[in-house]
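Form 7-S
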Amino acid sequence: MDIVIVEDEILLGLLLADALTDVGHRVLGPASCRAEALGLVSDRTPHLALVDIELRDGESGIELAAELRRHGVACVFTTGQPVGARAHRELALGLVEKPYNPTTILEVVRYFEALHAGERPAGVPRGLELFGPDALPVSLGLLDTSAPAVVPCAGSGAPGAAPSAAAISASLPAQSEQRLGDAGVLEALTG
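Output:
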């Protein structure tokens, strides 16, 4: 897959670029600001953008995600600002909260790569919170989805206990028949 990394922490950006390149992805970047990111996608439209919300010089990764969406680039927010990411969930396929292990990013990219290839992964990678169908770039169309796809990192029950399916369902906002699940993400990535 072609992946653009937008990360103002240069060492983290380089680490992710190396890790993704090592497993065979073509990486654009890392970019640390809006202008760099848009320059990277001007000649080639990547399959996925990993976008931090707080960029160099106070620039907004949220605004960048809106621009990337207009260019048909699917985004995943990779940020320590999960509240801000969730407030703009219509702009990204999902969220990976910082701090994260680079292996988490590799698993998230592998998940989207499998969907893009027409495969159905066994489940959503731990640490990835998928957002709803509004998150799709206009060129990717609507999703046909069958189940909510949220993998919580922490439960609201006893410490160390995983939340029950009922608790997860009850915590999700009411949605129409279409919800973002594996099948819908597949359709979004393959068009």
